[in-house]
Design goal:
It is a single chain. This protein is of the alpha/beta class and 341 residues long. It has 2 domains: 184 residues, FAD/NAD(P)-binding domain; 130 residues, 2-Layer Sandwich (D-Amino Acid Oxidase, Chain A, domain 2), CATH 3.30.9. It is built from 10 helices and 17 strands. The strands form 3 sheets. Strands 4, 5, 6, 10, 11, 12, 13, 14 and 15 form a 9-stranded mixed β-sheet that branches. It has a 6-stranded mixed β-sheet with strand order 8-2-1-9-17-16. The structure holds flavin-adenine dinucleotide (FAD). The site of flavin-adenine dinucleotide (FAD) has 41 residues, from helix 1, helix 2, strand 10, strand 15 and helix 9. Flavin-adenine dinucleotide binds next to helix 1, helix 2, strand 10, strand 15 and helix 9.
């Protein structure tokens, strides 16, 4: 084990902070650098820790259910370590009968059963929900956190574990023993980053409808009762790496949100956007780069918060030489090299 290794972590989003904390806890001397952490995708995310509905509703996530669930199971440890607060009240799918039947079939494929709720219970769990829906399906396995307080808690825990933080962009490994690249959709610090596709995501928040109830998953959007307002998200705009508002791209999602919560129809909202990073197989990259002394923690697509503790564990194991667990091969950044696999 390389105890006391000098490690630079580039990027202070969910992944960089989680890696920095795990590395400091493993005895490394860690410097965490980010020129603009407020602009991270992690800060604008909805904060769902949602292995079940992600695997049911997103075709790219379906084959990774075991991995997503294992990542979720790492969260209580990080909650205890860093004081990140998890909301475990669950998530509810709401839609017409045909769509809900598809959701139920997806749950059965995962070996799960949702709890079928009548309209009255659904509207109690999600105040303001439209009464046009007769049924809903609740799962307790999906959780949630508040991204900005979670980032602050991770940063505070990392700093009190000895992590030095700097507001600067990293260009190369420098004099570190290892460089951990957790730069989200940014390019440049490792050859494998060229495999990543940016996916712009726009999300809106209705400040007047403040957090109560469970998260809601529906056709065309999700609704998260966040502390700073009901969040309706999120667009998936592959190939776009900008964060400019685009009301045309947003319109179907806003309409879906207003179908769920009719009072949103004319309500004013705040808009934010972030850029996710997706690898060709939809799984993240966590492990050694082909570049010397470089370790990657990126490509988490739309599940970076969910995956953060598991990826941090793999990254820390790369540095310390400890067992990195059963997912190393599936997360290996070099799996896209020509001739591999
Ligand atoms: C609208 C939206 C909603 C989402 N909702 C969820 C959700 O509910 N649940 C979930 O799990 N995931 C969600 N995601 C996905 C999640 O936000 C991302 O997967 C996650 O934030 C990725 O974290 P990261 O640390 O890899 O990257 P980021 O959070 O993007 O952080 C990368 C950081 O690297 C910094 N950086 C770039 N280049 C350099 C450099 N050279 N040197 C130093 N620093 C650098 C940047 O400034 C940035 O702060 C959502 C994403 C979006 C856009």
């Amino acid at each position: 084990m390389t105890r006391g290794a000098k490690v630079t972590v580039a990027g202070a989003g969910a992944l960089g902070l989680s890696c920095a904390l795990a590395l400091a806890d493993a005895g490394c001397a860690v410097t965490l650098c980010d020129p603009d952490p407020e602009a991270s995708a992690s800060a604008v995310a909805a904060g769902m820790i949602a292995p079940v509905f992600e695997a049911v509703l997103d075709a790219a996530a379906a084959p990774a259910f075991d991995l997503l669930l294992a990542a979720r199971d790492q969260w209580p440890g990080l909650e205890a370590r860093a004081g990140v607060r998890l909301d475990r009240s669950g998530a509810m799918a709401v839609g017409d009968a045909a769509w809900l039947a598809g959701v139920s079939a997806g749950l059965v494929r995962l070996g799960l059963h949702g709890i079928d709720l009548p309209r009255r219970t659904a509207t109690e769990l999600a105040p303001g929900l439209s009464t046009a829906f007769d049924h809903a399906t609740l799962v307790r396995e999906d959780w949630r956190l508040e991204p900005r307080p979670a980032l602050a808690a991770l940063r505070a825990a990392a700093e009190s574990a000895g992590v030095q933080t700097r507001r600067e962009a990293i260009q190369d490994v420098g004099d570190a023993d290892w460089l951990v690249v957790a730069t989200g959709a940014a390019q440049g610090l490792a050859p494998e980053l060229a495999e990543l596709t940016p996916i712009k995501g726009q999300i809106v928040r209705y400040a007047e409808l403040r957090g109560a109830g469970v998260s809601v998953r529906a056709e065309g959007c999700y609704a998260v009762p966040a502390a700073d307002g009901l969040a309706i998200g999120a667009t998936m705009e592959p190939g776009l790496a900008d964060t400019a508002p685009d009301l045309e791209a947003l319109a179907p999602m806003l309409a879906a949100g207003a179908r769920l919560f009719p009072s949103l129809e004319d309500a004013s909202f705040g808009l934010s956007a972030g850029v996710r990073a997706a690898s060709p197989d939809g799984l993240p990259m966590a492990g050694f780069s082909a570049a010397p002394k470089v370790i990657l923690a990126t490509g988490a697509r739309r599940n970076g918060w969910l995956l953060a503790p598991l990826m941090a564990q793999v990254v820390a194991a790369c540095v310390t030489g400890r067992d990195a667990g059963p997912y190393v091969a599936r997360l290996d950044p070099r799996r896209f090299e020509k001739g591999s696999g």
